[in-house]
Amino acid sequence: MYTTAWCGYCVRAKTLLDSRGLGYEEISLDDDPAFLRRLLDLTGGWTVPQILVDGRPIGGYTELWQLDRNGGLERLAA
Q1: Is 2 in a helix, a strand, or coil?
Q2: How does residue 36 score in pLDDT terms, banded at 50, 70 and 90?
Q3: CA dihedral defined by 22, 36, 57, 67, rounded to 10 degrees?
Q4: What burial class does residue 72 get, using C-beta atoms within 10 Å of its C-beta: 0-12 exposed, 13-18 middle, 19+ buried?
Q5: Cα 27 to Cα 17, 69, 70, 75, distances in angstroms
Q6: Which residue ranges make up each domain of the chain?
Q7: DSSP, res 61
Q8: CATH classification of 2-77, choosing from 3.30.420.10, 3.30.360.10, 3.40.30.10, 3.40.1110.10?
Q9: What is the spatial distance between Cα 61 and Cα 47, in angstroms, rounded to a whole number?
């Protein structure tokens, strides 16, 4: 998960994953002045968080929340 320290949605995404007992790797972009370009190149998105599952971009917090809500997050974690 690509994050920044000032991102409230990053905190929400980490909290959701923690509450489900799912591990994640956090990659902070705070010290990367070109982080928007890097995110776009890596994930196709330019907002944080950008969340990848097995190298596949799933989007940000809203997409993660929707996956959790419809059972998709549990299926991805299995």
Answers
A1: strand
A2: confident
A3: 60
A4: middle
A5: 15, 25, 26, 24
A6: 2-77
A7: H
A8: 3.40.30.10
A9: 10
- Give the pLDDT confidence score for residue 78 in this predicted structure: 73
Q: Return the residue matching tokens 């971009």.
A: 57
What does pTM read for this prediction?
0.87
Once rounded to an integer, what is the mean pLDDT over residues 9-13? 97
pLDDT digits (tens, 9 = 90+) for 37-77: 888 888 888 889 999 988 889 999 999 999 999 999 888 87
Q: In this structure, which amino acid lies at residue 48? A: V
For residue 11, the one-letter residue type is: V
Torsion of CA 29, 67, 16, 60, to 10 degrees: 20
**Bond before 33 cis per omega within 30 degrees:** no
